[in-house]
Amino acid sequence: MAYRLGVDVGGTFTDLFLVDDGDHRQWRVKTPSTPSDPSQGVLKGVSRICAEAGIEPADLANVVHGTTVATNAVLESKGARVGLITTQGFGQILHLARSQTPGPLAGWIIMVKPDPPASLADTREAIERMDARGNTLVAVDREQVTRVIGDLVESGVESLTISLINSYVNGAHEQEIADLVEELHPGFPVTISSAVLPEFREYERTLTACMNSYVRPQVAQYVDRLQSSLSDMGVRTEVDILRSDAGVMTPKEAARNPVYGVLSGPSGGVAGALYVAARAGFPNVLTFDMGGTSTDVSLCQAGEPTIGRETTIGQFRIKVPSVDVHTVGAGGGSIAHVPELTGALRVGPQSAGAEPGPAAYGQGGEAPTVTDANVVLGHLPADLIGGEMTLDVEAARTAVQKVADAMGLSLEDAADGILRIVNENMAGALRVISVQRGHDPREFAMVAFGGAGPLHANAVAELMGSFPVIVPPSPGLLCALGDLVAGFRNEFAQTLIKLTSEVGDASAILGELEGRAREWMDAQGIAAADQQIEFLADMRYRGQGYEIPVPWGDDLESRFNDLHEQLYGFRMHDTASEIVNLRAVGTGDRPQPELPEEDPVEAMLEPGTHARADLHPGTIVPGPSIITEFDSTTVVLDGYVAEVDRYFNVLIRKGS
């Protein structure tokens, strides 16, 4: 038997999803997360799920892990002390940044500029220089650089970043300095910018490389500790780590370049949503992941996620490939309040969090939340997580009554108002990734997951016109399933900056990029038959400050114009386009878990409350109804019908 395990660490729970590729059995476990040391929650979960499956840890053939260690290090400002070595004359690069302020008028007055990951005190300038074509103008002054390295290491920095001007064209000087660091201080963690982001724009390249150094020691220690502890338990396979672009990387790669995994949690959800939606026959979907504090949404076409080239983490915008996820501060713990000044009901972005949590949790929370409103309206049963958690209905009613009194409404109307507002907030996030980018949401299905997603999906889909709503089995653990279905992925780029008409034959550049991608996939142990290469061109109109990735092929300029018009509503007829970067994306498939499948047998139920475990493929549940399960609750509104498909998904459509 081949047992494959996906592990996703969240702020409150660590989710584990185990599948047996032999007879397609599945096991699911939710265990409390341990923020002080996330590996402890993972180890407890692995022990528990192996015991429930009746197997030994040594029987695990594959373990994939989505982790928030890098994310938390940035958000909590608990990363390493980073030393930066840059070209002479460019020591202020991280502080000059992009001179952007948060908003118009007096935004620059009230702005609190964040401290960069490498301070000015820990920045040194190296005597060297390359020109923009990669030719050496000034050779590396090894004696001076040796003094710089010694000064930084002796001062107490915990990792080093080497980011030199024009290294994106030729990284030889960066590599020479890195080799010198290894010679002087073997094993000291070093990041070179030409390896992390070999693209022009020195500020973004330097920031991304420094952010990699900032989280590198903590991630490396975590991965090493987790791998060692699992080995002590008897696990014989390596733990692959999920990347921000819904691919996976080996633990060695994760320890070396952890910046690629800063958003691995949301990407796991998108990967899992795509997998179940594609099996159900819906390649174009909006993903809707609603948790306790926030909701993540994404748009996917033709069975592929939308991959962005930049992502925001904390107050920094770094350039790493990641699933294009839009987040809004709306979740089950979002607090409802009525400001005295306006008297208008507001919901969020403040959240009750996990402690004390919604009033219904019975842990001292008193503020009315979205969860409390769902309890008042009967959308949530009194028992959750298989009876492990009991909700305090009276406490929820007392909390929501505060809103009712402030607005002169009945208790039920106040609860309904809370849900309507939070649903509009989440629909607004979906409009950002669909309507504002030239897509009609009515042409997309919606995959609902997360602990609270299925509670609100029917109502949100009604606002968007996105049907059917697809609620996969165990929606609260879909991110863990996404860890299992993700394949290997990496990108290799070279900056070009030439007019499209002047590029000519690019086969030599593409061949070099393909060679780098093949070399990487070979190193990951990916069989040649499982290797795929896709070529992209980052394009823009001449003089623009942003690019659009366009698949390489014929009529490149025409397809760029079409994409630009779709995204921004116009095309420029008298301005030439140019290619900024050429990119090769290497992917390697892994064995996919075989999930249950069964021929449908039609059965019609009455509206009401039903246990999902009692529903089989072909079962039809008309609204208004509630479908309960271990980790989530699905609401089917009046006028809608839910049907269980052959893959055990619940599909919600408008009733006839």
TrEMBL record:
Any GO MF annotation of the entry: 5-oxoprolinase (ATP-hydrolyzing) activity
Domain Hydantoinase A/oxoprolinase: 205-491
GO BP terms, alphabetized: glutathione metabolic process
Coiled-coil region(s): none
Record GO cellular component, one term: cytosol
Hydantoinase/oxoprolinase N-terminal domain mapped to chain residues: 4-183
The protein, known as: N-methylhydantoinase A
Source organism of the structure: Solirubrobacter pauli
